[in-house]
Model the fold of this input.
Amino acid sequence: MAQNKINIAVLLGDPSGIGPELVSKLLSEEITNKANIIIIGEKNILESGNKISGITHNLNFVENFDSIDFAKDNKFFLDISEGKNYNYKLSECSKEAGESVLASLNLALDLAKENKIHAINFGPFNKTSLKLGGNKYSDELHLMAEKLEVKNFFCEFNVIDNFWTARVSSHIPIKEVPEHVKKEKIIKPIKLINEAMKLNGIKNPRVAVQALNPHAEFGTEEKEEIIPAIEEAKKLGIDADGPLPCDTSFITAYKNGNHDCIVGMYHDALQSGLKAFGFDRGVTVQGGLPVPITTPAHGTAFDIAGKNKANLEPTLNSFKIALTMAENKNRL
Done:
């Protein structure tokens, strides 16, 4: 019965990008019947996505969550228009687009805090529009963490073909990376990705850890910080391995199938390998938050917005991960 299913909030993404048309396609997929779906956004944005995709949906429209009755159906559209019928232009950043996204995201996060939804899956956001719309954070992950009052370590996971990555440092200059390569900082993403992958159904994740220096030997960080972190992880019962030289780490861990995930020291050491192997299939998981939150890893793709060319696979994969993690979390 619908009332016994996981509740997943689906957000349309930036109205000027490919998010609305992707969500329109997603709602026709059979897997969405395995959950209770609450699409949050403005009705005209969904209609725009439907027009582009050529798909129409028989959705139940409500203006507040408490009007939803999952005993009757499993798909509801929570309309936050409040009389607004703004015409968002495709392929353009705008304050209005950012405000719309923030309104839907903040409502979803509020519902998550009230335990009314168990996961969030969102169409791609545009960081420029978010900033124009009033987002004061460096990215949506930090906004979500603040809103959900997260005190523990959190970081972004990137995924292709259910191979996961996490990083010790992220959007910082290369010259600052070594000061973050410390045992106590390395162990945090190792522990977090291990727990997240268990929620995603991997009972004993095989965690690879990248080196910092070429061939894992032209420097001291491996011996002094990275190896001690790996040994500490092993003592905690984590199947950790490394350090793997960055230039061959994705061949060893991903292509050859020796590991389920990899933790790296800095952004490009991971993203270069990940995107080379599967940029068109990537998923982003917001790690360390109290509810699973996922999205396709690609951006708003203004160059193809409105052309019905957007690939559904990353959106579909991101929904599957949100569903699996939420179901497993609910069993704990």
Q: What stands out?
A: The chain has two domains: 2-150+289-331, 155-276. The first helix runs from residue 19 to 26. The domain at 2-150+289-331 is CATH 3.40.718.10 (Isopropylmalate Dehydrogenase).
